[in-house]
């Protein structure tokens, strides 16, 4: 009897990761939520996989520490490992790949594997930690995670700046990265996204392409960096550069940003969203966003653009009525075109959301059949009966 | 006919990685040394695996860029990937794990695999890039590498400070990391190492435990960080805090540091060195070094201590006469004791040098048999005839 097993965390994943196309047992990990040990001196913490990143950060705050990954509100550490997620702070702190020290994983045959020690770096054997990160529940169930933590910065400044075109905004994001300035966030929002945010939050932000920056560090440093970026923005027709330093105001801004998707729903309440997630080399970002924006503007559907611009990663929320087949098809067409645009620029079909079922069809074009065959060989070696989250990540047509 | 294949880069690896215990063909990769394409705008470069990191940095300098991994002089990018190396700058920029975007790898069956796109982040399937990094030539031959580059900092300051004990020095390194100060290097050298450096380089540095720091960034920032560390050092009996800002003087200091091993040989020319490489959680570093130092001081052999202290990683060079069996045994005994001390502190037997043949015997204690079995399953899936660098990394007693 080979019953499929589908691990289930916060269920905020986007590409059908937690569906059960072959039936089976869904293991809800959300009750395994103990924080097992905090090592303040080592800046690490050992947690069970069901802990949410928001809860974890509440727990860490009094210790002056935080965990810098911020995917969907409700996401769990286990799900975040399994999807190799990132978020707005990845430009500074990296993705889940870079912030996990050690995992405990139950393999399909019942073996309980420890993937590392608690040392910050190690060259002891194959990197099983990174193999599990991004494996989307197809290789085993993550039952314990040791996370690398960061100091809460003593100082942070949020800056916002308006532009005439998304291209100008993207160019400033790129130029900022090139200048060597260390931003901790650089998020791009198009005019449609800003309009949605205004509607959902009763705000009156200028409805134009906008960059939101965060700078951290000591007072002198944050100020110095901010002024450098202001100069770059001015060189690209940026206007209305504003700073926010008051803690509640900053928190509100990031909350609004994090809830951008729901703002979209507030604008068109009966719609669903197709969420795209391409990522391209930084030098191609402005072009990739511009090309995409032309497509989106020409579509009858409402489309919002939001980018983790410092990483070359951007999302669009394409709002469609699921009862209208042609709207669904149109949303798929736009997603598809954007993926192919990104792939033609040496980019990826998924910067951070993962493969699930939705992105399987693009992997061969992105990585080649040899690469997929290698993945399938690893899958078959660790899960010969294909019980772990079957039907995900590896396209069905791959043979070993 | 299953002929073993041993890839061979700069041959600077330390744990017997390039030996051929089962005979076979050694593939010298050092002539594949083209720099294939530099993308200044994306801060990445595509190279063949035989390029050395020193040559690469000479090539990059006029473009204002550099690659921040600095293992043994002579090491090649392919070998550095294969050993998952790091170096003095890892405290700021991470290890090879964090600085490779994409690999091309020839697998044992001849499949040529591309492990990623050129996007900076991606969640597209299993992380084959990280699986190959650290695989020590046991899974395939790396034939092309896309590396992430960094801006050459506009400003850097090197600071040196003297201490009465290695514990004081280690405590200052730890306190510096905890303070959130962003050092780019923090290296600890014991009094024996300093003596060797003085002898080899005609210097007259005070022969006491010493910390060498590097701070980078803008002028204001580097200065601010330096002063903060000076304060921490003063609180731990640090003395003679000196700054070096003149480019040639800084370069000389890092060159001397990089050549520390040869300085050891200058002190005792007819000896060989047993090089140890443990890494522990940061909070245990001072204790681990102190315990080790007692052992070393009590030994008849000359032992030099040198640490990448910000990562919790330290090396000792144990000088012994290979013709004297008891000296060799004594060196092994010291190495062995240090590994076990580190493992008892949740550390690793190898922070950066890798497993080769030398560290195989410690992996079961560090990671458990389940973990090794998983590695062996992966190895068997990708290299069923065990032709790639057989006899390395996975201990021979592991069964699948
Ligand atoms: C509003 C919104 C904003 C978002 N923003 C971001 C963003 O900025 N960046 C980003 O990267 N993502 C973002 N996401 C996507 C999502 O939050 C992430 O993919 C997140 O990592 C999923 O975590 P989860 O706990 O919800 O996982 P789930 O959805 O429950 O599961 C995801 C996958 O992980 C597996 N899994 C879950 N738990 C385990 C376990 N313990 N062991 C093994 N496998 C397991 C599941 O089988 C499944 O394949 C966003 C989503 C929403 C709704
Ligand atoms: C003085 C000195 C200082 C050092 N300092 C450091 C340090 O600070 N940090 C650190 O991490 N290390 C350090 N090392 C160790 C060493 O430099 C590193 O391990 C380095 O990464 C080895 O690279 P290499 O090109 O010399 O590899 P080699 O020694 O040639 O090979 C190492 C392994 O990689 C495999 N390999 C080589 N090329 C390929 C390829 N193209 N494809 C697949 N497999 C391949 C080989 O089969 C072998 O298993 C130091 C060494 C010395 C001598």
From TrEMBL, chains A, B:
GO terms for cellular component: mitochondrion. Pfam families: FAD-oxidase_C, FAD_binding_4. It comes from the Eukaryota. The keyword Mitochondrion applies. Residues 1-152 form the FAD-binding PCMH-type domain. The keyword ATP-binding does not apply. It is an enzyme of class 1 (oxidoreductase). Its EC number is 1.1.2.4. Keywords: FAD, Flavoprotein, Mitochondrion, Oxidoreductase, Transit peptide. One of its GO terms (molecular function) is D-lactate dehydrogenase (NAD+) activity. Its cofactor is FAD. GO terms for biological process: lactate catabolic process. It is found in: Mitochondrion. Belongs to the FAD-binding oxidoreductase/transferase type 4 family. This is D-lactate dehydrogenase (cytochrome).
């Amino acid at each position: 009897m080979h019953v499929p097993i589908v691990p289930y965390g916060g269920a905020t994943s986007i590409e059908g990761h937690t569906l059960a196309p072959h039936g089976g047992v869904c293991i809800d990990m959300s009750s395994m939520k103990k924080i097992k040990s905090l090592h303040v001196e080592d800046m690490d913490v050992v947690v069970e996989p069901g802990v949410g990143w928001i809860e974890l950060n509440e727990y860490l705050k009094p210790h002056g520490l935080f965990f810098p990954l911020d995917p969907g509100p409700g996401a769990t550490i286990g799900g975040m490992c399994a999807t190799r997620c990132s978020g707005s702070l990845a430009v500074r702190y990296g993705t889940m790949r870079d912030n996990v020290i050690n995992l405990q994983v139950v393999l399909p045959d019942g073996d309980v594997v420890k993937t590392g020690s608690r040392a910050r770096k190690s060259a002891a054997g194959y990197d099983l930690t990174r193999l599990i990160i991004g494996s989307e529940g197809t290789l085993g169930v993550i039952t314990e995670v040791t996370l690398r933590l960061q100091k809460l910065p003593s100082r942070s400044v949020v800056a916002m700046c308006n532009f005439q075109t998304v291209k100008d905004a993207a160019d400033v994001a790129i130029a900022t990265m090139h200048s060597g300035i260390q931003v901790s966030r650089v998020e791009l929002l198009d005019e449609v996204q800003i309009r949605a945010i205004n509607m959902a939050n009763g705000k009156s932000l200028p409805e134009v392409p906008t960059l939101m920056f965060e700078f951290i560090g000591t007072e002198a440093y944050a100020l110095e960096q901010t002024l450098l970026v202001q100069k770059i923005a001015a060189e690209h027709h940026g206007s209305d550069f504003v700073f926010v330093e008051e803690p509640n105001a900053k928190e509100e801004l990031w909350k609004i940003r994090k809830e951008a998707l729901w703002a979209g729903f507030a604008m068109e309440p009966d719609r669903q969203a197709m969420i795209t997630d391409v990522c391209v080399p930084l030098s191609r970002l402005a072009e990739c966003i511009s090309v995409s924006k032309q497509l989106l503007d020409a579509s009858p559907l409402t489309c919002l653009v939001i980018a983790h611009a410092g990483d070359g990663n951007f999302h669009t929320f394409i709002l469609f009525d699921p009862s209208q087949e042609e709207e669904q098809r149109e949303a798929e067409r736009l997603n598809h075109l954007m993926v192919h645009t990104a792939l033609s620029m040496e980019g990826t079909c998924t910067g951070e959301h993962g493969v699930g079922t939705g992105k399987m069809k693009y992997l061969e074009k992105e990585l080649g059949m040899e690469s997929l065959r290698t993945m399938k060989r690893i899958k078959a070696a660790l899960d010969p009966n294909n019980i772990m989250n079957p039907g995900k990540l590896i396209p069905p047509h791959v043979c070993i």
